[in-house]
Specification:
Blueprint lengths: L1 E4 L2 E4 L3 H11 L2 H7 L7 H11 L18 E3 L2 E3 L3 E3 L12 H12 L4 E2 L7 H6 L6 E4 L5 H13 L4 E5 L9 H6 L9 H8 L2 H8 L19 H9 L8 H11 L2 E7 L2 H9 L4 E4 L13 H12 L4 E5 L5 H9 L4 E4 L1 H32 L21
Parallel strand pairs: 5-12, 6-7, 7-8, 8-9, 9-10, 10-11, 11-12
Antiparallel strand pairs: 1-2, 3-4
């Protein structure tokens, strides 16, 4: 894929190129929704800068032929230890975004996770894919609705349930407030003008019927459109979510359970005690508690405390294959990408997501070679030099 810049063609070589394309092609209010953090955005920035600050040990005169990035995540074979993270309103980055991303992930050979707050429904994604995907659950005050989501995920053949623990209340994101991004959106005049300038996005959005929260509208009594959804969602995130609630979800799901949003060793130990299959070291992309540690800096202590009792994964700031290798070296068995795949989706739909995954895999492959490694199982702390936060 290439992007036209005047009369020149600029090739896409990295995730940053996809980000710049997405910024040009996606309406500002939806691009900002994906590419922002809470309050001062210090944690959002730290996720990436702390990864960038880690240096690697280059090795030479090592036979690095026959390299492979194949691995497993909760027992499922993966082409590389990377899964697509659940992201809300993915279908507003590109029409039918969740379907396109799920198809790209399936073809590539990595897991896709559908968010509760998706535009395309569980049933939509299941109808357009051939292999099981994962479903992410926000536990709502309305337990009957939460239970219906669990049952729908089972019926769709989802192979794992991912329960998000760090969104009991919603962090304040200044850009969303300034852009009028609410439910339903109330864009400013400037944003309406900006939206009208994104012709490819507008044409694709006009051609689809999927423009609202497909997992909710029509599935909750009295919620038939975006307007009636606003009051319901504003009071549904449950501040009372606790470990008893986790046990309730585990009991009703009965399958593989992943807990997302762990940043503290004590919480990681409680995740092990809950019987979950995996936990994700994550600060919600810096979108909740601003001032929380970066995911990569929190990872080593958590992995040392609870692995291998539970699979430890990491989410937050991953933009390259080198970032994936650094997370694996610090104890993660798997990683997730959120913004990186959204950049690809916004830039070029399904093709853009596929290209994002291909870029990350190629970077991981080359970095393994430069570090004298041929298999994922060989990656450990010996591949790293001093960590910036340990000095």
């Amino acid at each position: 894929m290439a992007a036209r810049l005047g009369t020149r063609v600029k090739p896409v070589t990295c995730v940053e190129d996809l980000r710049l394309l997405a910024k040009r092609r996606v309406p500002r209010m939806f691009y900002d929704y994906a590419d922002s953090g809470s309050w001062t955005e210090s944690t959002y920035r730290a996720n990436a800068t702390d990864l960038d600050a880690i240096t690697l040990r280059q090795r030479v005169a090592v036979n690095v032929g026959n390299r492979s990035q194949h691995s497993k995540m909760i027992g499922e074979p993966v082409v590389m230890p990377v899964a697509i993270a659940p992201t809300g309103m993915t279908g507003m980055q590109h029409a039918d975004g969740e379907i396109l991303a799920a198809r790209a992930a399936e073809k590539f050979g990595v897991p896709f996770t559908l968010s509760t707050m998706s535009v395309c429904s569980i049933e939509d994604v299941a109808a357009h894919t051939t292999k099981p995907f994962w479903f992410q659950l926000y536990l709502m005050r309305d337990r009957e609705f939460s239970l219906s989501l669990i049952k729908r995920a089972k019926a769709a053949g989802c192979s794992a349930l991912m329960l998000t623990l760090d969104l009991q209340i919603l962090g304040q994101r200044h850009k969303d407030i300034k852009n009028g991004l609410s439910v339903p959106p109330k864009p400013t005049l400037a944003n309406l003008v900006n939206m009208a300038s994104k012709l490819h996005w507008c044409r694709a959005m006009l051609a689809t019927r999927r423009r609202q929260f497909g997992n909710i509208v029509g599935h909750v009594k009295g919620i038939d459109d975006m307007s009636s959804l606003s009051a319901w969602t504003s009071e549904q995130f449950d501040p009372g979510l606790d470990w008893d609630a986790v046990a309730w979800v585990k009991e009703h799901w009965g399958g593989k359970l992943i807990l997302k949003g762990i940043l503290d060793v004590e919480d990681a130990k409680l995740a092990v005690a809950s019987g979950a299959d995996a936990l994700i070291v994550s600060n919600h992309g810096g979108r909740q508690l601003d001032g929380a540690p970066s995911s990569i800096s929190a990872l080593p202590e958590i992995a040392a405390a609870v692995a291998p009792q539970i699979e430890v994964w990491m989410d937050g700031g991953i933009r390259s294959g080198q970032d994936v290798l650094k997370a694996l070296a610090l104890g993660a068995k798997g990683t997730l990408i959120g913004r990186a795949f959204l950049y690809g989706l916004g830039a070029a739909g399904e093709q853009g997501v596929a290209q994002c995954l291909a870029i990350i895999q190629k970077e991981l492959d080359l970095t393994m070679a430069f570090c004298g490694l041929t298999a994922i199982e060989q990656i450990d702390g010996q591949v790293l030099r001093a960590l910036p936060w340990s000095r």
